Amino acid sequence: MDDKLKKGNEISPTLKKAIKTAKLSVIVFSENYASSSWCLDELDKKKQIVVPIFYGVDPSDIRKQKGSYTITSKRFEGRKRKDLDKWRKALNKAASLSGWDSLSIRPESKFIEEIVKDVKKKLKVLEEEEAAIMATASVIASTTYVGASAC
């Protein structure tokens, strides 16, 4: 989190870059999530692992885009139809993922503990995969070097 970011100020380029290069995103769908065009734009860009959290909202309302998740041109005046369609598709895709529903796990402390365990597990898997890729790259580089010096 950008501790220097004051409410109402623009998000710093450093934070934007961190969001863009993250390998895992925890997205908290709340009652007001879909009122933010910035959040909707970011949701559409997610290419990494997504851990959806449905906080006080029904995932099916997001998939069906009901209530506060209704994306209309009247609500987002001035936005292109292409943007609205992109947001609808991204919301549907994210809400279709297996996620955490605050309405089904109580107390809230248990809900948070379960999310933390899940995210740690996913990050560990990513770390192990990255280590395996680096080890493979090192072997390939060594083999190439040995092969080149043997000529």
List the helices and strands and how they pair.
Blueprint: H1 13-21, E1 24-29, H2 37-45, E2 49-54, H3 59-63, H4 81-96, E3 100-101, H5 108-149
Parallel strand pairs: 1-2, 2-3
Helix pairs in contact: 2-4
Count of spatially separate domains: 2
CATH class of the largest domain: Alpha Beta
Portion of residues in beta strands equals 5-15%
| Low-pLDDT runs | none
Q: What does the average pLDDT come to?
A: 83
Determine the N-to-C terminus distance. Answer: 52 Å
Query: Going by CATH, what is the homologous superfamily of the largest domain?
Result: Toll/interleukin-1 receptor homology (TIR) domain
Number of helices: 5
Return the structural class. Answer: mainly alpha
What is the strand arrangement across the widest sheet?
1-2-3
Order of helices and strands: HEHEHHEH
Structure summary, number of beta strands: 3
Shape: globular
Largest sheet: 3 strands, parallel
Q: How big is the Rg?
A: 20 Å
Coiled coil: 109-136
Protein name: TIR domain-containing protein
InterPro entries: Disease_R_plants, TIR_dom, Toll_tir_struct_dom_sf
Organism: Cannabis sativa (Hemp)
